[in-house]
Amino acid sequence: MSPRQTPSQTIGPFFHYGLNPVEANYPHSQIAGHCLASDQTLGEHIRLTGRVFDGNGAVVEDALLEIWQANAAGRYAHPNDARSNRALDPHFHGFGRCGTGANEQARFTFCTIKPGPAQPGHAPFISVTVFMRGLLNHVYTRIYFDDEAAANAADPVFSSVAPERQVTLLAKRYHTPSGIEYRFDIHMQGDQETVFFDL
Amino acid sequence: MSVLSGRDWKSQPPYIDQGYKSTSLRGPSRSLVKIDPELAEMTGPAFGDEVIGSLDHDLTRNGRVNGEPLGERIVVTGRVLDENGQSLPNTLIEVWQANAAGRYIHKKDQHDAPVDPNFLGAGRCMTDDQGRYRFYTIRPGAYPWGNHPNAWRPNHIHFSLFGPTIATRLITQMYFPGDPLLAFDPIFESVPEAARGRLISEFSLDVTEEGFALGYVFDIVLRGTQATPMEGTE
Fold this sequence. Notes:
The complex is a heterodimer. Chain A has helices spanning 16-19, 149-154, and strands at residues 45-50, 52-53, 63-68, 81-83, 95-99, 108-113, 126-132, 139-145, 170-176, 179-183, 186-187, 197-198. Chain A is mainly beta.
């Protein structure tokens, strides 16, 4: 008999000293932080920021977000993406982790680059995994970019989402004095409930 | 290009669980939208030995300030594999837990039990080429929480694993055999009954290190993936 999946359990409220201890000022190192890009990373540098809301519209202060994305050439830093026509960027690995409790407004903020489209006919996007107390299984969503309307409309995943819910997957682009910022909020429930994927 | 087994909802807890109150406002209320795995889901972060410090696998030593942590030393070991029975080598495991008195070092833990100045309660290890892992720690204590009157969490260690892609990501909790609190814990009980036993470690005299630490075995099964790398120039 083949082995069966180990059940998921909530991350709970007290994960910070284990998973993002540097950000939360605990004496332990962490495997990845909120800054994915260095000065040498190729591509358009962006800041990705937002908040997580519960079913009452209250800000969630104890969520953990992880993001995973392709580089500016649309290549993932992983052995399953061995396409020789797309260059790896030695200054970009594509994974980041950020909690929501580190600032007063409970925002997450990543500094990264806008990915290239990873496959022909696909839009650029960033994969997001969300964990929190009260969430027994993590949820997956994707961040698409609101300045990529034509590419989004052609994207097989984005276009498969009911039109009235597509807006929940769009980050809004802003020009700020400190650079390009995309804002993306996550709503766990309610009229604006974010589309979460079963993948 | 790839085969990815889905989340087995007969093994996984629901998003909204009547017994675990925080789920009522935080679990998604709409159905998940099914997508076919693309490159994004067939890839994920890979970590090497560079993220493992020399004491990261030993929670009895990595938080010492002026002595040894209090409590019962244990060694926890097991195998990480996928649903196809394949061992998963070089997979990162992150763990965190309360101390022997049931107190987390976390700033927001209000439980009136002592902090142990010599115990951090967080560590990391990698699976070896056989998919096996091992770490040393102190058996965590039970602690009360506010879910319902006289609610207590059973002894548990939090585990975080990546596996080969973002689709195999898992965060779970390992429990101990014979814990009388399991039957009263809505987080444990949220799991379909047939799958609950997979969260309980087994005591092992073979793993137990004579004169030093009791041994527990906890195997972890992630979703199955079979990917053929995307190669060439498209």
